[in-house]
Each structure stands twice: as structure tokens, then as C-alpha cells.
């Protein structure tokens, strides 16, 4: 059974940076898509970014393009989300997720494995 554990959340002033990490274990992720979603109270979980583990192909939601970078360290089975120029609207719980397959999907229901989430707060 796959396990995903996020870390790196916290509170940062607007314009600041954070790096989230997602440590993956329990299965081979070479044929997986791994990604980040975020959720705020009363709003559906939102796709942020994803990466195809074995090729490095990435996809981002428009609101984070140019500010966030997703990457993976395949040797360590860790995925990262580098977040720069943070805005108050980036405040959310960020979840790491993985899906079996080779195509990047943005719907949460297409991901089979989830972490517990890490809070990111950018005060206004």
C-alpha cells in the first residue's frame, strides 16, 4: 500500500517562499503521476500541479504558473513543490497525491493515494 507523507507547510508573509515535500513509500512510483492539490473550507479540492514520475513531464493550474515548481527526486522517492511569490489566496491545506497511469489528470477522483495534508498560510 502506498504511503505519502507531506512536510514543509507553515505560515509565510505574502511574497515569501515555501517548499513542500512529499515522501513516497510502499510501492514503485516509476509508472505513476504524482501531484499536489489544495483545499480551503467550503471549496472543493483544487488541482495545483503534477509530474509524471518517470519522464518529468509537468502540468500546472494557471494560477500558480511561473510561481510554483514541481519536481521529483526519483532516487529518494520524494516529490517537491517549490512555492514562490506566495499570495493570501494560496492559503490552504496542501495534499500530495498519486495515481497509477501515464497521463496527468486534474480531477481528485483520478488519484488513488493521498497524504494527510500540510497547512500553508499566507496572511493578508
Describe this structure in words.
With 124 residues, this protein is an all-beta fold. Helix content is 0%, strand content 48%. The protein contains no helices and eleven strands. The strands form two sheets. Strands 2, 4, 5, 6, 9, 10 and 11 form a seven-stranded mixed beta sheet that branches. Strands 1-3-8-7 form a four-stranded antiparallel beta sheet, with no helix packed on it. The protein is globular. The mean pLDDT is 94.
- End-to-end Cα distance, whole Å, is 39 Å
**Helix count, DSSP H or I runs of 4 or more residues:** 0
Principal-axis shape equals globular
How does the helix and strand content classify structurally? mainly beta
Largest sheet data? 7 strands, mixed
| Percent helix | under 10%
Q: Mean of residue pLDDT?
A: 94
Query: Uncertain regions: pLDDT < 50 for 5+ in a row?
Result: none
Computed over alpha carbons, the radius of gyration is: 13 Å
Task: Give the percentage of residues in beta strands.
Answer: over 45%
Q: How many beta-strand runs?
A: 11
Tell me the series of helices and strands, N- to C-terminal: EEEEEEEEEEE
Amino acid at each position: 500500500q502506498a504511503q505519502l507523507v507531506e512536510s514543509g507547510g507553515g505560515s509565510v508573509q505574502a511574497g515569501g517562499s515555501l517548499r513542500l515535500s512529499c515522501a513516497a513509500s510502499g510501492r514503485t512510483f516509476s509508472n505513476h503521476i504524482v501531484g499536489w492539490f489544495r483545499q480551503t473550507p467550503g471549496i472543493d479540492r483544487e488541482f495545483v500541479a503534477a509530474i509524471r514520475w518517470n519522464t518529468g513531464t509537468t502540468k500546472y493550474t494557471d494560477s500558480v504558473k511561473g510561481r510554483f515548481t514541481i519536481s521529483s527526486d526519483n532516487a529518494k522517492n520524494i516529490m517537491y513543490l517549490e512555492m514562490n511569490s506566495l499570495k493570501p489566496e494560496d492559503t490552504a491545506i496542501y495534499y500530495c497525491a498519486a495515481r497509477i497511469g501515464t497521463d496527468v489528470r486534474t480531477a481528485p477522483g483520478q488519484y488513488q493515494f493521498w497524504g494527510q495534508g500540510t497547512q500553508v498560510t499566507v496572511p493578508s
